[in-house]
Write a structure and sequence with these properties.
Three copies of one chain form a homotrimer.
Chain A lengths: L5 E3 L13 E4 L4 E7 L12 H18 L7 E8 L5 H9 L7 E6 L9 E8 L6
Parallel strand pairs in A: 4-5
Antiparallel strand pairs in A: 1-2, 3-6, 4-6
């Protein structure tokens, strides 16, 4: 019986320190976090890729926490980066706020909101209390 | 015990009238709706952003209904808009057919089908009969 | 009681031989497969759309197998194709390795990895042993 999200890293695939190739979610409730930009509580978009990336991930963390989940229960992050930004710079900015390996998709896609350089969505398991 | 999709809107995040920051799905079956363009039953692409947006959402609603779900059970919509269209115009067109708040990701991304201005996918909970 | 992923093809929608309009997942564990490019076990990106498409799908299959799932349990594929590639050519290349109909979203989006022409992610059900 699976009780926690579990990374899948098959032998035949290149192993990454940054992400898992797949993640299993246990049976039970999930939380789908809609696309988060680097906006603060007042709805203002922060300035620059580093600040936007950190804030977008903090917003994801806030939604996860409010749902009774957390970063260690995330099954997949989908990260949309404006085509003009450097993925390595965004990854470096994420390291301070996101210490967990999970499955990811990273795409060179502008968010629809003007000026937004990054948009992050997530799906996560919600563990049973006490599990 | 969660029995219905539940919006998550943490205090620290900007609150939107249009969408929830996250949605919880209860345990049980889900339906994944593949990307829907503004095509009619004969496979013809409708003309213009307003007509395509309404039709794409009607197609999502038809798939949800056939799966025993519905718009009030949707956990997330992912909305892909051609980079040349105005997101506010698409949102206005959606209001007539989609009255529910859910988690969303909106991206400036052309659908692969030539001429398609909008593509919408969804994931939703399927409630137990009688629940 | 649903025990297997089930395609949803409502009468009012155009029916495609290539994909289902929606897929139901039964209750139980899921596997989320992160975006797979056409890279081999050594992390090298293969050359050309055909080779990359086949390899990306083989990588998806490897993650599914390692999770106790498989292509017949997939609920949705999300296929990102570089805007300069021909979707029909990618579809033809996929036919050799992916014989199952499922729900799909296909977008004209460059993967973030330089040179990658295709990125495929998946979500699938994990069947109970013996079910």
């Amino acid at each position: 019986m699976i009780e926690h999200v579990t990374p899948i890293d098959p032998e035949g695939l290149h192993r990454s320190p940054a992400f898992a190739q797949g993640m299993i979610t246990p049976p039970g409730p999930l939380v789908f976090v809609g696309g988060q930009n680097g906006v603060d509580a007042a709805g203002r978009l922060l300035d620059g890729l580093g600040a936007q990336t950190e804030q977008a991930l903090r917003n994801v963390l806030a939604v996860l926490a409010a749902a009774g989940s957390g970063p260690e229960h995330v099954a997949k992050l989908t990260i949309h980066l404006d085509p003009d930004v450097d993925p390595d710079e965004a990854y470096a900015a994420s390291a301070a706020v996101w210490p967990y390996r999970t499955a990811v998709t990273v795409l060179a896609v502008p968010p629809a909101r003007p000026g937004a350089l990054v948009e992050v969505e997530a799906v996560a398991s919600i563990p049973s209390v006490g599990a």
